[in-house]
Structures are given as structure tokens and as C-alpha cells.
Write a structure and sequence with these properties.
alpha/beta; Peroxisomal Thiolase, Chain A, domain 1; Beta-ketoacyl synthase-like N-terminal domain-containing protein; Thiolase-like; acyltransferase activity; Ketoacyl_synth_N
């Protein structure tokens, strides 16, 4: 089947790996990264968190996100190699909602970060355009349709889809603590704060061949939707109408060709309403799945993924397909934002 886009390179930095490959293998080995952090809750107690111990512990918030993003982006760009000519590139940068907030009298952290990353890309690109989403975890799913359309029309040669997330910020921890969302022994319906960044380079298959780049994975379906259930309300998560619709739409192109997904990568933490939602949606979409129907939630071992979730899923899947340790050749990435946005992306091994 004709893919919407091909993944030709990936870069990632997470609490369980300093590269895309390290992260994929550590994830496969069920590595966990929980540790006591220097940040404290409202009671002055250190919180359990997954964070990069290699970064300066005094660097927090947007400045820390910039360090994470630069590492992951540089890895993805390096994998393009010397064979790749100067390219027309679209950077699609996905960030968490709080980075889109504008400081009084200044610009939003998201805009500064996007400008810095765009400058890094210009060293090897003929043209660079930048799009920024601050819609959280589902943001990549909302940007992908326009990226795939631009690739198909030939208006760009490559798309860089990236996500950056960090909870390593006193203000962020204070907000999560006030909302009762930080995981601890007496609060299990919550999540473990985390941080990571991931970028994938997308091309049309023919452009990848011209650049002498191998396809690592193929995006073959995508969809977005909205759910009424959110962390700040009591709407029933078992309705799952949005996630169900997104799954059906994303996986329909595969089903039309007799293919089904056997691997599910989610952004689920330990917040139960999202688990209820997935259970309901999975029960209604079983005809699109097959054995081993392996469901993996990296955030439960490397901390909350935020806007980096879907790019990280694509990076993990591409490494697994390339090296032969994927549990199934067809995977689906699922992510949901606090605002109710949901996204599903179907990806398969090339060939």
C-alpha cells in the first residue's frame, strides 16, 4: 500500500536512553527510570520522577526543554548523512500547553524554542519553515495531515516532526501537585513526572531513495478526534467516542487490504480515566487488531511523555522495525491531551 510518509531517521533522548537506539532497546528490556528528584511537593517532600541525570539539576523549564530538543534534533539530522542534498524542510514542533503561554511583556517559550531549532536546521537545509503546536500529547496527530499533504505535493522534501516535554520545573510541579496529579504511594490515580524529546524525519519514498536513505517505517493511517472526559471533569471515560472514531479511521486503510495491527504504543500513565477510555475503544475496534495485540505504555516506566509521546512512539517503532525486534509489523500510536484531543497514527514496517 502507498504510505502517507516514510520515516527515514529518528533521534530521541529519554531518562532510559541518550539516543533513539538506546531508548528503543531499553524500552524493549523494560528499563525503568524512577528516582527521587531534587524537586519537592507542597509538603517539602522530594517527588518521584523520571529525569535526565546528565543534565544540570539547576536548569529547569523552557531552558531544559531546549537542551533536550537540541540533543534529539541533532541526532535525527546527523542520520541524514552526507548523501542527503540541501533540502526544503518543514519543522513541526510539538510542545506542552504551558510552553505556549506568553510571559507578560515577552514572547512565549514555544516561539523562542522553535526559532532556535529552526536555526540549527538551516545549516543543512535549503529552506526551513516552522510550525508550532502547543496542544500537548495529541499535537503531532493534528500536524501530520498537513505535513503529509505537503510531502505528497512536493512543496517540501522532508518534514521534521518533533515533540519536547519536561516536567522538571518547580512551577509545573506545583501546578500538578495542586491538581492532585503527582503519583505517590497515597495517590495512585496520577502520573510520574518525566521529560524527553524525540524527532523523526519524514519523506516520500521516492525522495528518500534519491537521498540514498532507507525507509525505517511507513505512516499508513492517521486520525484525530476529541473526548469529553478530561482530567478536570467527571465526564464518563467509558464513552470513548473520540478515541474509537480515531482508531477506526486510522486503521481502516489497513483493514481494506486485509491487514491488522498487533502492536499498540500509548501515552497512558497511571491516571485511570485514560485506561477506561482505551478499554472501551479497544473493545469496539477489535476487528482492526490481531495477535499478539501487545499494548505498551512507555510513560509508566520513563515518566510522563507529554508532547513527545507520538514522535517517541515513531522513533521506537522505526528502530524496532529496522532491527527486527518489533512484536508485530503493524503498530498504532495513541495519544491524548488534557484538553480532550485524541490522535491515532498507524505505522508499519517497510517492504
Amino acid at each position: 500500500m502507498r504510505p502517507l510518509a516514510a520515516v527515514v531517521a529518528a533521534g530521541a533522548i529519554t531518562p532510559i536512553g541518550l539516543s533513539s537506539l538506546d531508548t528503543a532497546f531499553s524500552h524493549r528490556a523494560s528499563a525503568a527510570a524512577m528516582r527521587e528528584s531534587p524537586l519537592v511537593d507542597a509538603e517539602g517532600e522530594p517527588i518521584t520522577m523520571c529525569f535526565l541525570p546528565t543534565l544540570d539539576p539547576l536548569v529547569t523549564g523552557a531552558e531544559r526543554a531546549a537542551l533536550l530538543a537540541a540533543r534529539a534534533l541533532d541526532e535525527a539530522l546527523e542520520k541524514l548523512g552526507p548523501a542527503a542534498p540541501p533540502l526544503r524542510v518543514q519543522l513541526a514542533l510539538c510542545l506542552d500547553e504551558q510552553l505556549g503561554q506568553r510571559a507578560p511583556g515577552g514572547e512565549a517559550s514555544a516561539q523562542r524554542l522553535a526559532a532556535d531549532l529552526g536555526a540549527r536546521i538551516r545549516a543543512r537545509a535549503q529552506e526551513v519553515a516552522v510550525k508550532v503546536s502547543t496542544r500537548g500529547a495529541a499535537g503531532p496527530g493534528f500536524l501530520l495531515p498537513s505535513l503529509c499533504e505537503s510531502l505528497a505535493h512536493g512543496t517540501i522534501d522532508a518534514a521534521l516532526l518533533g515533540g519536547v516535554h519536561t516536567d522538571y520545573d518547580p512551577a509545573r510541579i506545583a501546578a500538578l501537585d495542586a491538581a492532585g496529579r503527582i503519583f505517590r504511594s497515597d495517590n495512585l490515580d496520577a502520573f510520574i513526572p518525566g521529560e524527553c524529546a524525540a524527532f523523526v524525519v519524514l519523506m516520500r519514498p521516492d525522495v528518500a531513495r534519491r537521498c540514498q536513505l532507507a525507509e525505517r517505517a511507513q505512516i499508513v493511517g492517521l486520525a484525530t478526534a476529541h473526548e469529553r472526559a478530561r482530567p478536570d471533569n467527571d465526564e464518563p471515560a467509558f464513552q470513548a467516542a473520540g478515541l474509537t472514531a480515531a482508531l477506526r479511521t486510522a486503521l481502516a486503510p489497513l483493514a481494506d487490504r486485509g491487514l491488522r495491527a498487533g502492536w499498540v504504543l500509548t501515552d497512558l500513565t497511571f491516571e485511570t480515566f485514560r485506561h477506561f477510555e482505551l478499554q472501551a475503544a479497544a473493545a469496539r475496534t477489535q476487528r482492526f487488531f490481531c495477535e499478539p495485540q501487545q499494548v505498551e505504555s512507555p510513560a509508566q516506566r520513563m515518566g510522563h511523555l507529554g508532547a513527545a509521546a507520538m514522535p517517541l512512539h515513531l522513533a521506537i517503532a522505526s528502530e524496532a522495525f529496522l532491527r527486527g525486534f518489533a512484536p508485530h509489523p503493524v503498530a498504532v500510536s495513541l495519544a491524548g491531551s488534557d484538553g480532550g484531543e485524541r490522535a491515532a497514527v498507524a505505522v508499519m514496517a517497510p517492504g
